[in-house]
Amino acid sequence: MRKYLSSSRNIALAILVTLLSACTPEGMLVHSPDEQAKVTDPLVIARNSIDQAYAVHASITTTLLQNYHDGIITLEEKTALAAKTRDALNYLNSADDLLAAGNLQDANAKVQLAQTIFTALQLELAKQARKEKGQGN
Amino acid sequence: MGIAEVLGIVLQLVQAGFQLEAIVGKAKEMKSKGATDDQIHTYLKNLAAAAQADLEKA
User: Which candidate in A70, A107, A125, B21 could, as Cys together with A98 as Cys, close a disulfide (CB 3.0–4.6 Å)?
Assistant: First the structure.
């Protein structure tokens, strides 16, 4: 049975992943900081957040699929993680619909829910990196 | 947590980062070629849906 991280290590990993994820290079933003600085319409800002979140979803999901093909995660693990990415995608689609209806507050709340899932998935990717290293040794 | 573990985490994040960079690069390329924000939004939304479908069916 695979050993997973202890709770204290999980906390340390979560902090590290959060810190690293916060340092998103400008080149990885769908809309550049200059563009965003010119935007004052909250609806457009929210739309840009959703766009960025869709890009993050696709990148995480693609990485998970690659890890499955590389044998780093099992079918069961892949299925469980796909359910989480599905939840995140559903939140983003809901946010998109809410924004189209002019409901900015609820749309932003849905994006926040998706981002919470992304943070957990980034932690999961970090765990998979540890497993990959263990398999290599 | 040792340095090797930290490096492993960083490498995994870099891998995910490369995926994100490629996606964002494509969106920026579309924009430079005159795509509207609506078209880029639709592209990213469809891309996420396709990636989700690929993960689920694999």
Answer: A107
